[in-house]
Specification:
Chain lengths: 325, 425, 279
Amino acid sequence: MTQTASAPVGATGDPAAPTAGRRPRRARPRRGRASLGQALLWLGPALLLIFGVVVYPAVELVKASLSRYSITGLRKGDAGLDNYTNVLANESLGTVLTNTLVWVVAVVALTILISLGLAQFLTKEFWGRRIVRWAVIVPWAASLVITARLFSLIYSYYYGTLNAVLLKIGLVDTPIDFLGDDRWIMPSMIAVGVFVSIPFTAYVFVAGLHAIPTDVYEAARIDGASPWQIWRRITLPLLRPAILVATVLNMIYVFNSFPIIYTLNESNPGFSHDTTITFMYKLAFKSAEKDVGQSAAAGLFNVLLILVAVVIYLRVSRWREEEES
Amino acid sequence: MGTTTSRHTQAVRWGGLALGTAFALAACSGGTGAGTAGGGDSSGKKATTIKLVAAEYSKDHTKAFWDKFATDYKAKTGNTLEVQIVSWDDIDQQSSTMVQNNNPPDILNLNAYASYAKDDLLYSADDVLSDSVKSDLLEAFVKSGSYNGKMYGMPDLSSARAMFYNKKLFQQAGITAAPKTWDEFKADAKKVSALGNGAIGYGLPLGPEESQGEFSIWMFNNGGDWKKDGKWTINSAQNVETLSFLKSLSTDKLTQNNPGKTNRQDAFDLFASGKVGMVVGFSPLAATLDAAKKVDYGVAPMPTKADGGEPQTFGVTDYLMAFKKDGNKDAVKAFYDLYYQKDQVNSFIKAEGFLPVTKSGIEEFKSDTKLATYLETLPNAHLTPTDDPTWDKVKLAVQQNLGTAMTGDPKAVLDKLQKSAEAGG
Amino acid sequence: MNGTLSWRRIRPAAMPVIGLGVAFAFLWPYLVMLLDAFRPSGDVVQTPASILPREWKWTTFSEVVGDERFRAWLQTSLIVALSSTVIVVLVAVPAAYFTARFRFPGRIAFLFLVLITQMFSPTSLVVGIYREFYALTLVDTYQALILTNAAFNLAFAIWILHGFFASIPKEVEEAAELDGCGPLLRLRRVMLPLTLPGLVTATIFTFIAAWNEYVVALTLMLSDEKKPLTVGINSYVTGYEQNWDQLFGASIIAIVPVVILFAVIEKHLVGGLTAGSVK
């Protein structure tokens, strides 16, 4: 364990820790102000990890997007902005962007709504609550790759459990081609996307709900507020930071969610049900382009798209005001 | 209390320091380090360790074989063979990542080689294959492994397709012999479909996984091909006829649901469920069926379009290609020498349930009567144009587009593919 | 009023029943998976589908656990996920506390930088990651995977903890400051207990993300025994041979450590402010 965990973990056990003069208290003004030097001390490890492991490869990605590659991955020279213009000229780009919009908005919105209700339920006291909490975590605990494979079996036209159940209870006469019928593919993928996003989101809300002091509720109840009023006026505003965080992070994860779309859409030709992230992957390895340069450019467009979406969301929800208050 | 607190900061600070050093190093050496291709051997010296990136055919046999092979290799040459086993789904990505970083493996196991040969990354057989090995390889595979007159794609194993049919369904439908012509084939498919109870005449996989394979075998049996005399013939009259014929199977409801979106394995699974009258299969399917013992099946040559035509089989090989790196030539040559020893190559192929790639292998496999159908046709197997680097892209275009012909216009689909092939993929 | 009264009466019975329904809603696909682990692989893809196995196969789990390769993958996953989680917590807590409690130049920029790191999918960065760790000769080592996982999951931990630290009334900390506690001591004695739910969420999140990471491990880990479960279990189903039963059996086992971790620390999701302010 120790030799694998590298220095940061190993150092925790180091007992030789001098006590004096370690606190960065030097002439600190009133609460809430700190110098850049102090900031670096506290944020240093985080910054190092981020710059070392994320920023360096990101720079490599930018370089790749400006290079011309053979289909083997061999760099053939500079490409200028060709990769970017090629991606923008791809005839499937419009479809892919529409799919992405539908996918992200539907999955995030449904996830947040359902999770709000679920979190309320999970914070109530009742017999067996712990078991229910354990159960809810399972879709999150299971690997996405496996859950996606599992659902491609469950949805299957010929040997899927879902169709078997629907046929048995007489809801349908012939099986539904969930993963082959153009009307069903996206809804089927969205259902799985929501299913696997709920546990994480719900637990962010559960943690948020537990952080709300109970005496606030007591006061409101004494004032005769109805449960709905309490939820609307007290719970929701106090849960706002949690909702913001959950929404922003979900947006990012859902944008970048690869296995569900890749696996459930596996038997469909072309890009007709792809989102930007699977589009990017297929450009590099599965489509006739087979070009890691174009894929890198598409990857950067993808980041830009997420960035814009998140900034718009934060603007609309006035996150900065909250931060600055 | 105070002690623990500062111990905590201490830890964080130490951690930060350690990370910082690590990444400072990364920043300095990132550019140059990647340039020294050669996996640890400096130029001029002979490599004593070589790396193999191998595709995983089956969980229990692939790794076991290569582990033992590495031991034998070490015993024989004193060199070390590092083996990385990668799933077929991910091996393209893995090899591309390595090539992008100028750090390819010494030996790579893949289903394509021509683009790598074109990029001048590979040793040719002249450099690394002994004469005795080369003369033992089957002609068809030497040809398909040769780019610009030199062989680069050394075959590791092969497979050939044949028509699998469900004897029980055939009997119920009153069919006495496997079909010999397309007309008979279609009539038989109709009879099986008419049985009802979920029976499917023919399992047709034209989904993106491997639609080029399914289309190949049908086109070869109609006298068509991907390329003829060095020119692309994807939209030739025969090929349009072939694809239209496959489409007619779908529109006449003789196939499973949505054949344009069915991958090979799904068609095999349906056949293994006993619901499908016929499917184009290969020896690994036979192994699965034999293990499950549920479906009584027969294997027959493909039906041909023309009455009395000579059935064509579609052959596939995967490749073991060797990357040119400083000082690794002798180690690579020793690798091939050992791999193509009869007891190595043939035991690998047997364990994985595929077909041989050498003349001596055919002799050895002849005793297995179950393989007779394939072995006879193997030397004359018809392959896709894997010797043309353009094919590496055309293949992908075919995979992503062919299925759309099941609901669209076969000619338009093939015209588009022809155009992109002529444009160089 | 009447309605509320009768709800009060049936509540003790109704809530567990609803709970059961909720649990089932989240578990049913994995029950299907469990049933698939208990049938021969061919039966999984048999037409027509049957909900219960046509033929039961009880040996799947002993086959999986008895496999040396599987045990090695499991060990790698545990080492990598645990180490990554420890690093993330150690690095994220000071960063989140500081950004929540102090104004300093570049504060918003830092929070945004952290967020942006999440926007790059590892799939697109994997080539650069490989290049970096190859240069450091860390390819095929646990360290490479641990550092990568830690870096990619830092953002969530910092953000979630930042939210918790920020939501604690400043007065609580001020009281401690008046008692003469410096920022580190305040963090440890006052703030951390109050943000325990956030800490637990961050821990679970990081552990699960590291536990299920796929593409970086696929690229960096060359030796079979150093592959984590997510990559290793690919071997059960290849294009030529399918062991659905073992794939799903292994996947069920892979869920267990996460649920155990969750069960152990879940009770700390409760508590938070109420428990802390009693002091």
